[in-house]
Write a structure and sequence with these properties.
259 residues; alpha/beta; 7-stranded mixed β-sheet; 6-stranded mixed β-sheet; 13 strands; globular
Amino acid sequence: MRLLAIGDVCGAAGCEYLRKKLPLIKRENHIDIVIVNGENSADNNGVTPFSAEHIFTSGADVITGGNHSLRQKEIYDYLDSNKPILRPHNIPNAEFGTGYRLVDFGSFSLAVINLSGIIYLEKLEAENPFLAADELIEKAKRDGAKVIIVDFHAEATSEKRALGLYLDGKVSAVFGTHTHIQTADEQIFPNGTGYITDLGMTGPKNSVLGVKSDIIINRLRNNDLSKFVFAEGECILNGCIFDIDLQSGKTTSIKRISL
């Protein structure tokens, strides 16, 4: 089974670029399943039913989230629908959505887990992701899933790598999201878990993490707290392809992509 994971989609520009490129990527690489992080897909940040539907109709099978997943109130009911859209499981007191989804693809089932990091994300007050991972992996096994995928939405590379190594042999793949910068450390850990610290992003290339660069520069240089606005123009798409053996649940090959 060949799985494509795509980094954080940023605003309307990112959504349109995903729609333009994803069908071709799927055909050329014989992709079976697509997981897209969509927590920044709405133009005013977060995710809305409109942006989620855009991602699904562009070719995604599952949408994962992050610290902005619950920013837009209009997404609340959508998160509780039967759509395969997730938000981090370890967000405390979250009344809407789930961080675990078992997705049936006919000949096999795929368990997707979405977790948030703690380091540098103190305002989110997320609970321990290691303990949350243990809980959900046990649930996935009870549900009969041999393929288990984890999107770890976290800031610190050390936290991401630590969780990846902790889960080596327990899950099929762990990929990081949130920083919007693709890392060049894709690898298969000794016990068969595919790993990359961060997938990167899908959105405007000439930006700071998808946002207009002058807004971020003014914030950092002059303490100007102007509202973030997504950039426009030429876009990029970052992601990673995992080949996973359906019998063992292990990753057999891994390939980073950047368009």
